[in-house]
Amino acid sequence: MSRVTERWNVHPNSPWLHGNRPKAPVEYVEQLGSWCAYGFDEVERILGDHESFSASTAAYAAVQVDPKFQEGDISQMDPPEQTKYRKLIGSAFSPKVIASLEPRIVKITNELLDAVPAKGSFELVADFAYPLPVRVIADLLGLDTDDFDLFKGAAFDIIENMSGLDFVAGGDGIEDQIHAAEARLKPLLDYMLSQVLERRAKPREDLLTYLMQAEQDGETLTDNEVVNIANVLLITGHITSTMMVGNTMACLDTERDKLARVVADRSLVPTAIEEALRLLCPAATLSRVTTREVEIGGVTIPAQQMVLPWVSAANRDPLRFENPDDFDPGRSPNPHIVFGHGVHFCLGTRLARLEGRIAINALLDRYPDFTTDPDNPTTFFPSEDMVGVRSMHVRL
Fold first, then answer.
1. Are the C-beta atoms of residues 280 and 250 closer than 8 Å to each other?
2. Which of 205, 265, 293, 314 has a CA 20 to 30 Å removed from the CA of 302?
3. In degrees, to the nearest 5, what angle opens at C-alpha 354 toward C-alphas 266 and 91?
4. What is the DSSP string of 314-345?
5. Residue 303's closest CA among 293, 295, 311, 313?
6. Sign of the Cα pseudo-torsion (345, 388, 354, 269, in order)
7. pLDDT tens digits, residue range 127-141?
8. 149: how many CB neighbours lie within 10 A of its CB?
9. pLDDT tens-digit series, residues 315-341
10. Residue 76 gets which letter from DSSP?
11. What pLDDT does 163 receive?
């Protein structure tokens, strides 16, 4: 068992987080009504074979969501449709564009940390790990920073009150819960639509305007597609980075000798971040559906079956990682698949890594003796398909 998961008893129902490997790399789990994959090779194959394992799973979920919420969502598409949308969005996250954001990210980082002494206390997520990436992605989209509370409310509400596993497994009252979540998301959708309509009238130099004007094969995005893409970028584009910063500091705070090592040798910051991502994978599982009968991991899965590739389990597979439950800030190579694999590899990977490097270095510059408050224990988000720090009170 890794020390960080033992310290806070993170997701006790996920055995691989506590040093216990599943008996088989692939098994059918009655409770979820799905086939679950845990082995690294099996998960990597599932994510890399879109012809056998389709990302278009919404129709197979236990509860159906209003289709208007799914228009433009590339996480629910396969090639060639997914390829078109990915090209439309991908150029906004090119290496050149991301590199140009570094001065702005450094500025936001310093502004947030400069405000800490005046507060007299420091809650890592609320005061820093959350507002940093959301301000960056909001800047990209061209949104008003005064609206951050709306973004945070929508994102945290979804993560805290709705697990992706609920869509898969169903259960008593789950349909009402999901429709209630849709209603709570509506203010953000309405806000984003108003922003799109503003740019129809007066285009700007921002990502929202780019999405509206972008053209692929003679086609442009509808207003609803732009709204959904912007919401996905805003919510998923910052919550992973928020968890990445919190999880990295949780690992370092737990293992003080390794914190001292990273403080002394900053070349270890990028590898420490990658190791925290591997050990505490923000998106613990994804979903796919078989398009045909498939043999994998010693079992045969029929066509049109829901499959859950547990990335968090794969990233602790002892067949791929030596001492997989240890936090090794210098681990290299570290071939984790936190950001996916194949055609659905995360578009925001470069941005997340840049934000993480700047954020962790800034925290270690200012708080080399970083330690959490024992009177206010660190908490994690409750949903088992997400692994991330929800709150972390820091001693100043």
1. yes
2. 314
3. 155
4. HTT-TTTSSSTTS--TT--S----TT--GGG-
5. 293
6. negative
7. 999 989 988 988 899
8. 8
9. 999 999 999 999 999 999 999 999 999
10. G
11. 60
Asked if residue 159 lies in contact with residue 386, where contact means CB atoms within 8 angstroms, the answer is yes
Q: Is the peptide bond before 203 cis (omega within 30 degrees of 0)?
A: no
CA distances to 55, 98, 294, 370 from 322, rounded to whole Å, are 31, 33, 29, 28
Inter-CA distances, 338 with 43, 99, 246, Å: 11, 22, 16
Tokens of residue 139, six digits: 């800047």
Tell me the pLDDT band of 159, cut-offs 50, 70 and 90: low
Q: In the structure encoding, which two tokens stand for residue 198, read together?
A: 């503003």
The widest CA-to-CA distance across the chain, in whole angstroms, is 61
**Which range among 205-209, 210-214, 220-224, 244-248 has the greatest average pLDDT?**
244-248
Number of other residues whose CB lies within 10 A of the CB of residue 200? 11
pLDDT score of 145: 74
Residue 331's Cα: distance from chain center in Å? 22
For residues 251 and 330, give the distance between their C-alpha atoms in angstroms, rounded to a whole number: 13
Predicted confidence band of residue 157 (pLDDT cuts 50, 70, 90): low
Name the residue type at position 335.
P
Q: Check if the beta carbon of residue 357 is closer than 8 Å to that of residue 300.
A: no
- Domains and their CATH numbers in the chain: 3-394 (1.10.630.10)
3-state secondary structure of 300: strand
- Residue type at 170 in one-letter notation: G
- What's the rounded Cα separation, in Å, for the pair 340 and 23? 24
Alpha carbon distance 288, 35 (integer Å): 10
Question: Residue 40 is which amino acid?
Answer: F
Give the tokens for residue 314: 């794969």
Span 111-115, average pLDDT: 95
